[in-house]
Amino acid sequence: GKNVGSFFPPFVIDFQYLKLKESPKGYVAWVANFRYQKNLKLLFEIASVLTTYQFKIAGTALSYMDEETALYVERLKTLKNVEFVGVVKREE
Question: How crowded is the C-beta side of 6, counted as CA atoms within 13 Å?
Fold first, then answer.
């Protein structure tokens, strides 16, 4: 009974075409390893703009995290509409 949409990289969001409900139900889920290719900078930008949406981030850092990824993980932690929920196994 849940409405689920998926975006598969690479994708570009043009905010002039993005039309969203003011009071959404549910949340936006982001699941991946924290690394450069996963574009946490863009996730931060989206979560910063869509403040009426809740974001749940599931994943973990690899043994090495590049500087940009580390920076945006920390910035995401400062947003009130973002929650880090830990690791979710692929089968889950």
Answer: 3
Contact 22, 50 (CB under 8 A): no
DSSP result, the chain: --------SS----GGG----SS--S-EEEES-BSGGG-HHHHHHHHHH-TTS-EEEE--B-SS--HHHHHHHHHHHT-TTEEEEE---TT-
The arrangement of strands across the sheet holding 55-58 comes to 28-31, 55-58, 82-86
Residues 17-32 have pLDDT tens digits of 556 555 567 788 888 8
Number of Cβ within a 10 Å radius of residue 26: 11
Place of tokens 């009071």: 23
